[in-house]
Design brief:
single chain, about 325 residues, alpha/beta, Nucleotidyltransferase, domain 5, 5-stranded mixed sheet, 9 helices, 10 strands, globular, disordered N terminus
Length: about 325
């Protein structure tokens, strides 16, 4: 690629917050490559093992970066900056990405840009048009976080609602585990739910004041229900798997939608975005679009590849930070929460 580095912004971004090792290359706001290496080993344990995750990142990060640069047609000497996920996430996993980014930035003598993982999920909406208009509300739903963020500018966001205990993504995965589904179970619940009746089994929608969320009570209710029914009929889960998936999914989504509707009413904002790994859930995507039509919202949902953990969202956030000269010192360190 032939470029003028005084005018063009070319960023390599790495993401290593959890169990996916990702690298992306951005050229003047356009994503040229977005590569991800997933870690299958965690399926054996029914969840993420932090030590195994960090070791796998060490093995995967260089091949993924090389693949992204090659796909983008960019030489490392052309890079304007190196970006990385600073947190939140698994500290061992974050350390791998942070150390790699710092080393590469120092070797190339280019700026280092640290990116907040949750902020990047929101900023994923600026990868492809249509872009949200400010102010907008973003329902950010992942395995570790559930938030409603009021965005008034690219880097001016206020969390106006959050979970007081567990995240929606965790609720999906734990419910899947109770049903005997392999990890990660959230996507499997979505898959089986498509052929089930969402009102076959009724579970209590959490009743939390104002804009906050709670999923621990729902998980407990689901567990007790499953235990009771299996005690009466050992084949209960197999005989009702689709309906169980559809019913628990319906309840989780109902709680999420209820809160974003309330947030829109309270703020008067009609530009509503959805982000985070759980935004890949087909029923949630459909529900937010239906509410948008009902309430006169303009809704925004990223492409599937930008919903789950990816480096493209890190790159686009770094692109705006670069223009503000918002760089990290080389002695920077990641944060877990």
């Amino acid at each position: 690629m032939t470029t003028n580095l005084q005018q063009d912004i070319i960023i390599l971004a790495v993401e290593s917050s959890c169990d996916d090792t990702a690298a992306a290359v951005l050229y003047n706001g356009k994503i040229l490559a977005n590569e991800v290496a997933s870690q299958q080993i965690h399926e054996l344990y029914g969840g993420i093992v932090p030590e195994l995750a960090s070791r796998a990142h060490q093995q995967n990060i260089l091949p993924v970066v090389i693949m992204a640069l090659q796909k983008a047609g960019v030489d490392k000497k052309e890079l304007s900056a190196i970006a990385f996920t600073k947190g939140p996430g698994l500290i061992g996993s974050l350390m791998v990405g942070c150390s790699f980014a710092k080393s590469m930035a120092q070797a190339l003598n280019v700026p280092l840009i640290g990116v907040n993982h949750m902020q990047a999920h929101v900023m994923a909406h600026f990868i492809d048009p249509p872009f949200p208009a400010f102010p907008f509300l973003c329902l950010t739903v992942s395995g570790g976080h559930t938030q409603i963020v009021k965005m008034s500018d690219y880097f001016k966001g206020e969390i106006i609602g959050k979970t007081i205990d567990d995240a929606a993504g965790e609720a999906f995965d734990k419910a899947a585990k109770m049903l005997g589904l392999p990890y990660p179970g959230g996507p499997l619940i979505d898959k089986y739910a498509q052929s089930g009746n969402p009102k076959a089994f009724l579970f209590p929608v959490p009743q939390i004041p104002d804009l906050d969320f709670s999923f621990s009570g729902l998980k407990t209710s689901f567990l007790y229900f499953i235990q009771k029914q299996v005690g009466l009929n050992p084949n209960f889960i197999n005989e009702n798997l689709a309906d169980l998936c559809a019913s628990i999914q319906f309840t989780i989504i109902k709680h999420l939608i209820k809160k974003i509707v309330l947030a829109a009413q309270k703020t008067g904002i009609k530009h509503i975005a959805l982000a985070g790994g759980v935004s890949a859930n087909s029923a949630l995507r459909k529900a937010i679009q239906e509410e948008g039509i009902k309430n006169g919202w303009q809704t925004y949902i990223p492409a599937f590849e930008y919903c789950t953990d990816n480096a493209a969202m890190i790159a686009i956030t770094a692109f705006y930070k670069y223009q503000n000269f918002d760089f990290e010192e080389m002695n920077t360190a990641p944060f877990a929460r």
